[in-house]
Amino acid sequence: MRSAHRDGRLFGPYDDARWADQHVAEMMRTPAEVAVPALVSVRVWPEERRLLDCAQPVLCVHIKGGGMTDPTEFARGRDNVFVAQTVGSGHFVQIEVPDQVHATIERFLTIVG
Question: pLDDT digit string (tens) for 93-102?
Answer without folding.
Answer: 888 889 999 9
